[in-house]
Design brief:
Blueprint: E1 2-3, H1 14-21, H2 34-47, E2 51-55, H3 58-69, E3 75-79, H4 83-86, H5 91-94, E4 99-103, H6 112-116, E5 129-135, H7 148-161, E6 165-169, H8 172-179, H9 183-187, E7 192-196, E8 207-211, H10 213-225, H11 234-246, H12 251-266, E9 282-286, H13 290-299, E10 302-303, E11 305-306, E12 310-314, H14 321-336
Parallel strand pairs: 1-10, 3-4, 3-5, 5-6, 6-7
Antiparallel strand pairs: 2-8, 7-8, 9-12, 11-12
Helix pairs in contact: 1-11, 2-11, 3-10, 12-14
Length: 337
């Protein structure tokens, strides 16, 4: 299978497997796992944040951050296609007791003006805005990247309003690569950020939430409440440490492969691709009967995801240029048959 369904499908590298086998471990619930501590310290170093906590998934990292930032009854402002809205089972309401005020956007990226008009202070009728959340890169907007100027505008407005700003940075290393900056440059604009180790970076499991010390202290309680208190978690953290060192330089190739695929797919009759939206490693392809095409491709060994009228392809370290070319030929044959 040449698998473009997601970058979560990456297999751990040989170096990751060796690190996992040889990891020094302890009980992480007691903060005694030395490898987890090294991973958290590395995350702090990369983002210039005071503290970090290793979590099993990005969903847990986001929800731990929301719980630590907010109080029940408060409101969260974010884009209406964000991961926390579509793919986290309503957990802001279920776990933190917060209402999401979702902002429709054409590209997944918030403008401060739209956020500002939805801000509410506490009153005798409601608790007001407790948190603003952004996603970078934005998955359902096709891997779009926040321009630094736009992100800084939201950050300045949030700070002036006294409302914290959290980033779902599941693919923030892809964003940094696309912008040509270090991850720290993006991280400094937000109060907290969760980034994923098991997507583009290629580790098998885990995410890291970073932020101020007091916030991460509270987030550890939320992690435990969500069932994320792991014991000898160093075997997982070891792979994450390798991923942080070996994979970021490879992301540019994923982006080049995505651009190559997008331009070629756009030339196939019956397929439509917004090339301006292809900024990182995610491609959306509009097609009349995506389900049928997806089935034909799967039968020929090419995996893609999507909906009834759209295909989604994600490039990653386990699919090289030659495989992209091979997959394109399969798509051409499927569309002409």
């Amino acid at each position: 299978m040449i698998d473009f369904r997601s970058d979560t499908l990456t297999q751990p590298s040989a170096a990751m497997r060796r690190a996992m086998a040889n990891a020094e471990v302890g009980d992480d619930v007691l903060s005694e796992d030395p490898t987890v501590r090294r991973l958290e310290e590395r995350a702090m170093e990369l983002t210039s944040k005071q503290a970090a906590v290793f979590v099993p998934s990005g969903t847990m990292g986001n929800q731990a951050a929301i719980a630590a930032h907010t109080r029940p009854g408060q409101e969260i402002i974010c884009d209406d296609r964000m991961h926390i809205v579509l793919y986290e089972f309503g957990m802001p309401a279920r776990f933190s007791g917060c209402l999401v005020r979702a902002v429709p956007t054409p590209d997944g990226l918030l403008h401060w003006d739209a956020v500002q008009e939805r801000l509410r202070g506490p009153s005798d009728h409601y608790r007001g805005t407790g948190l603003i959340v952004v996603e970078n890169t934005h998955n359902m907007a096709g891997g779009r990247v926040y321009p630094l100027e736009r992100l800084e505008q939201v950050a300045r407005g949030a700070q002036a309003a006294g409302v914290p700003l959290h980033m779902d940075g599941a693919r923030v290393f892809n964003a940094a690569c696309a912008l040509g900056v270090e991850v720290e440059r993006i991280a400094r604009t937000v109060d907290s950020m969760c980034f994923c180790l098991s997507k583009g970076l290629g580790a098998p499991v885990g995410s890291v939430l970073v932020g101020p010390s007091d916030l991460i202290y509270e987030a550890r309680f939320a992690r435990k409440a969500l069932g994320g208190g792991m014991r000898q978690a160093g075997v997982l953290a070891a792979a994450g440490l390798v991923a942080l060192d070996e994979t970021p330089p490879l992301l540019a190739e994923d982006h080049r492969n995505a651009r190559f695929l997008a331009e070629a797919l756009a030339e196939i009759p019956g397929l439509s691709v917004d090339l301006d939206a292809v900024e990182t490693n995610i491609i959306f392809v509009d097609v009349a009967d995506a389900s049928a095409l997806r089935s034909r491709l799967a039968a020929e060994g090419v995996g893609v995801s999507g909906s009834e009228s759209r295909l989604r392809l994600v490039t990653h370290r386990d699919v090289d240029r030659a495989q992209c070319e091979q997959a394109l030929q399969v798509v051409r044959n499927a569309c002409s048959g």
